[in-house]
Amino acid sequence: MKKLQASNFEKIILTAFMVSLARQFTDIPYAKELAQLITAQNLVELPQPQNQDKSVLLTARIEARYKAINEVMAQYQIAQVLELASGLLPRGLFMSCNPNITFIESDLSAMIRCKQQLVQQLIEKRPNLHFLEIDATSRPSQFLKSAEQLNPGQPVMILCEGLLTHLNMAEKQQVCANVREMLYSYGGIWITPDFIDTASLVRSLQDDPDLQKLLQTGTNLTGRSLVDNNFETLEAARQFAYEQGFCVTEYSMLNVIDQLSCLEILGIDAEVVKKMLARSSVFALSLNAT
Ligand SMILES: C[S@@+](CC[C@H](N)C(=O)[O-])C[C@H]1O[C@@H](n2cnc3c(N)ncnc32)[C@H](O)[C@@H]1O
Fold first, then answer.
1. Which of 108, 137, 175 best tests ligand 1's pocket when mutated (most atoms within 8 Å of CB)?
2. Domain-wise residue ranges, the chain
3. What's the gap in Å between 193 CA and the centre of ligand 1?
4. 13-23 vs 31-40: helix crossing angle, rounded to 10
5. pLDDT tens by residue, 143-163
6. Which of 9, 71, 154, 162 sits 20 to 30 Å CA-CA off 190?
């Protein structure tokens, strides 16, 4: 964002705008409206050329992870949601149509303030949609800022997509510790597609040269390598989650291939996307019983 002093994590904020622009080529509710607002209001200056809306695999992955998370959420039927690193995700906007859901969006202060302003331009204020400044890595945890909105007797569903991939191992551990504390207090589940292995990422890069350029743009913006910050193998990702005190259930992103609107909108070869999704999962993490 133009007026931000770029600090360590704040540089990552720009990637939220990149993925939001990619999401406009999907049928995800409110995705186009949000992308149009950020473009019309000139909220961000991204480097040229803006390949973010040209990488077919990025758009397919962004749509798939969003829809795969929604599918996994539906299996748990938990009515209070804490979304970390919400960026410009439209899930809160959409889900809070249901007054029985409490939806808390959170992100770094500059991002969540910007998000709240954008949402206010699209819908009336809703009593069940909240916006909190939470640095997901901070210790002691800032997650308990959500205590005011959450019902203590009810489980919570914690979501994050596209955050852990930017964090180094020590930072990922801090997020895990914060999630653990929340799940100890409330019960519930953490749903995330962010346990990515470098081997599958490298294979996707070979299938889509634009994705390579885009990841380089992301690295230049954030000063963080999307390749190096991931797990070497999927087995290493599972092991990490286990060592952090979680049981993992995995859901293949291939389950949502038939729901991907961007394939038709952008004329994407479904076979290439299938290959990528076959290597990608959403993790549902609960606390180990011990
Ligand atoms: C790639 S974007 C993903 C945004 C959104 N989840 C999505 O899928 O569109 C990464 C997001 O992480 C947020 N972020 C970066 N560091 C953070 C931190 N320490 N705590 C919380 N959010 C953070 C950024 O502000 C940005 O919104």
1. 108
2. 10-287
3. 13
4. 120
5. 999 999 999 999 999 999 999
6. 9
